[in-house]
Amino acid sequence: ELAKGINGLDKIVLRQSRFRSAEVYLYGGHVTSWKNENGEELLYLSSKAIFKPPKPIRGGIPLCFPQFSNLGTLESHGFARNRIWEVDASPPPLPTYSSPNAFVDLILRPTEDDLKTWPHNFEFRMRVDLGSEGELTLTSRIRNTSADGKPFTFTFAYHTYFSVSDISEVRVEGLETLDYLDNLKNRERFTEQGDAITFESEIDKIYLSTPTKIAILDHEKKRTFVVRKDGLADAVVWNPWDKKSKTISDLGDEDYKHMLCVEAAAVERPITLKPGEEWKGRLELSAVPSSYSSGQ
Ligand code: TA6
């Protein structure tokens, strides 16, 4: 269902039941909302988010492509998150997870200007699928459609902002003992200790070659987010904490307490595609009640 969002921007509303729903803006191909069967919002979206190109939307699931962060010559996190995507009328076949159908296929192709800064023709297709159990699946397919015979290389992330009740009560499981690059220490490489990740200060780490399943346990809400990823080796964990938050104008000063970014990503080993080749990267999110309680 196509609808008008904030500032008249087009959005697609996916609905599975009265409350189970998701919203995707064509601006950025950006998922801004994901609600469970009780109508509770599962993604963090900043109340100060600016829904106005070229400023990317703060919260939800920004797409970082063709460059994660400032790891190259492009603007930080690339340009896919601040371009207007189109609905893809004839996507190549892909299995659907939702029944009844609640999915949309989007496509992004480079503009003339994009080709000046990143001279590679591509088709970036993304399906957003809201399943009957409320799970949200994003499947990206990126194809090199260049006629010049040249390969291209990119890095990528689903920069997902989860909504959490209290960041200091949250723990992340699945990243223990892994190597990571610490973005707060010149991307130096370290090894994580054996315990689940907890939060008491700013964090900006790129965990390398992680398992395909990561869990975010929200003790206070008694909710666990399960992140499953495919084709995306790494996982970025980010929370700006108090000081950094104050430097981010479209983020409320106290919002860091209620958000956590856990991002399925391909960073350490960039993806290279020859003409005609396609890469696929899949993210599946589910939110389940958890029996986890402190001390267990
Ligand atoms: O994924 C973490 C990160 O790259 C951080 O370094 C932080 O700057 C964040 O993304 C947000 O970036 P943005 O460009 O959206 O302000």
What does this structure look like?
- The structure is a single chain.
- This protein is mostly beta strands and 296 residues long.
- The chain has one domain (2-289): Beta-galactosidase, Chain A, domain 5 (Distorted Sandwich).
- Helices cover 4% and strands 42% of the residues.
- The protein contains 2 helices and 21 strands.
- It has helices spanning 112-117, 241-245; strands spanning 2-4, 10-15, 21-25, 30-35, 63-64, 86-87, 103-108, 122-130, 136-144, 152-158, 161-163, 170-173, 179-182, 188-191, 197-198, 203-207, 213-218, 223-230, 234-239, 259-273, 278-289.
- A 9-stranded antiparallel beta sheet has the order 6-7-8-9-21-18-17-12-15, with no helix packed on it. Strands 5, 10, 11, 13, 14, 16, 19 and 20 form an 8-stranded antiparallel beta sheet that branches.
- It is globular.
- The N and C termini lie far apart (44 Å).
- The model is unreliable at 292-296 (pLDDT under 50).
- 6-O-phosphono-beta-D-tagatofuranose (TA6) binds at residues 56, 69, 76-77, 159, 183, 204, 236, 238, 261, 263.
Amino- and carboxy-terminal Cα gap: 44 Å
Shape designation: globular
Query: Could you say which small molecules are bound to this protein?
Result: 6-O-phosphono-beta-D-tagatofuranose
What's the helical proportion of residues? Answer: under 10%
What's the number of helices?
2
What is the CATH C-level name?
Answer: Mainly Beta
Rounded to an integer in angstroms, the radius of gyration calculated over CA atoms is 18 Å
Lateral strand order in the biggest sheet: 6-7-8-9-21-18-17-12-15
The CATH topology turns out to be Beta-galactosidase, Chain A, domain 5
Q: Tell me the structural class.
A: mainly beta
What count of domains describes the coordinates? 1
For the residues shown, what is the average pLDDT?
A: 95
Largest sheet: 9 strands, antiparallel
* Oligomeric state of the chains present here: single chain
CATH architecture: Distorted Sandwich
What percentage of the residues does DSSP assign to strands (E)? Answer: 35-45%
* Secondary-structure element order, N to C: EEEEEEEHEEEEEEEEEEEEHEE
Number of strands: 21
Low-confidence stretches: 292-296
Protein name: glucose-6-phosphate 1-epimerase
EC number: 5.1.3.15
Keywords: Isomerase
Catalytic activity: alpha-D-glucose 6-phosphate = beta-D-glucose 6-phosphate
